[in-house]
Amino acid sequence: MKGDEESEFDLEESVARVIRRPIRHTAVPPFDQVRRRADRRGPTLLAVLSAVGVIVLALIIGGALAERRAPGQSTSQPAPTASGAAGVVPTPNTSPAPSPSTTAMSAVEAAAWQSVRATLPTSGPVAMPTWLPPSIDRTAVEIRELTKESYIIAYRGDAGSVLVFAMGSRPVPSAETDARVGIKLVRRSPATLSLPQSVFDNPSAKAVRRVQWQEGDRWLRIESEDLRGDDLVRIAWSLDLATAPAPAHPLSLSHGRAGACASADPEATLRTFLTLAGGGDGDATQDCYAVELVEFTGPALGQGWASRPKASLISLERRADSGGRAQLLVSWAFASDPGGAWASPPTYFFLLAREGAVYRIAEMGTAPMGPYP
Amino acid sequence: MRTDWNALYAEQAGALFGLLVKHTGDREVATELMQETFVRAIRAGAPDDEMSTRPWLFRIAVNLARDHHRRQKLLRFIPFTGHERAPDLGDPEIELVHRALRALSPKLATTLLLHYDSGFSRDEIAAMQGIGDEAVKSRLARGRVAFARAFTRLGGRL
User: Fold this and answer.
1) Pairing of strands A136-146, A151-157
2) b/e per residue, A207-234, with b = 16+ CB within 10 A?
């Protein structure tokens, strides 16, 4: 026993000595530099008032348009109101465009989310769906758990299927054998899709697929034994953003180069992206990328591409959509050696998200992304 | 209490920079995060209790480092950002410490750094991380073993 203690003591001494190794050249910038950054003023009052004016105008126009679109809608459905306050149904606040396969929120569903909002503290993350597959019955909604710290909301669907939205203080561990796929950003946070091995052999297998992510000290998840992973991802990517974390790098494309790259046609966005290589215009390149991605990674995104050699398209091929996003396989040639570890010719899969009326790059990789079983 | 930020910066900037270099493995990033720590602290206003100012500053720093690692995880999938350069610490020993820490979970690495590098007590770390003293003790014990394994596997000598 004494030997164990001595050995533990030796280990602690050794680890402490190694970790404590001093850093060489610790010269730090002068304090004035930090002070200037801290004192840098935020948006002017005029800008804030203008922004508020634009939002109010958008709400008025949006309301008028909604009335024009749905003149016969039942008056029993609660009208969307401002989010955040207890007892109020959060207004869906999300960028993806409406999908033809989505279904409208029911009064029962609205009431369930209203209860969640009213029970949680104001800062509690409520991740409410704006898109659900038609197989889910939006009138069959059940609150399985609701405390100030957590909630579980279950939807029922065709053939007894169940879809769960949950929030709590701990993550739900995946089985060791589950495949875990990073699906990038859900409500501005990195998320993981876990898929049991059985669904790769049989996509109809009844096995829990789960999208899970963290917001502050809370863990949120969407899971189902019945829906395909791709549907869960699509639900996750279209969640209401009302209580999502604030962007790390807020971006207003209206002050940048909106329209320099993004297009209503995903292929056109990619073609423009390639023409912008080597152009030295990082702001234009940035318009190719999804706002959520720029807001997460920072304004440097796209700058590297603008300083690459010129690129010419070799091939562009539409592949299966994933999570409701367009997927393209693109190959190109650089006019000169770009350095680094680029394949020759570079060939990438791009996933483009619809933001308002245009498509922007949300993800890219050397292997196809989804569709997930 | 009116905080003398200039004095606080002079006292703590070097130590914060050291912790962030070991945490991030990149001197430029560490410099940026150290400055951002103070920017956020100045904007938020220091706690009234002078004793708690130092842990508060370090908590901001490790949270920023954690956010940085999350972004890096995402950036690994995005080869067009201009961030492709390999960071150069200019110090093979510290590079080894960083690589061994990266082999640990972020919670274990942060706890080890706060305790052994920055000199915080278990109680202080418990308060900073919102966990119990036993949890800190456990993280330190597991962290030491995991760090020692990773460090020697990478060629370091304890």
Assistant:
1) antiparallel
2) bbbbbbbbbeebbbbbbbbbbbbbbbbb
- Residue that has been written with the tokens 């020692």 in this structure: B148
Q: Model confidence at B11, in pLDDT bands (50, 70, 90)?
A: confident
Query: Which chain B residues contact residue A24 at CB under 8 A?
Result: 90-91, 94
Q: Is the pLDDT of residue A60 over 60?
A: no
Query: Average pLDDT, whole number, for chain A?
Result: 80
B20 φψ region: left (φ > 0), alpha (ψ -120 to 50), beta (else) = alpha
Query: Which site among B67, B78, B102 would you substitute to test the A interface, given the most A Cβ atoms closer than 10 Å to its Cβ?
Result: B78
A340 interaction partners in chain B (CB closer than 8 Å): 79, 84
Q: What is the arrangement of strands in the sheet containing A358-365, beginning at the earlier edge strand?
A: A311-322, A325-334, A347-355, A358-365
Query: Do residue B35 and residue A33 have CB atoms under 8 angstroms apart?
Result: yes
Integer distance in angstroms from the first to the last C-alpha of chain B? Answer: 44
Query: From the candidates A14, A26, A33, A34, which should be mutated to test the interface with B, based on the most B CB atoms within 10 A?
Result: A34
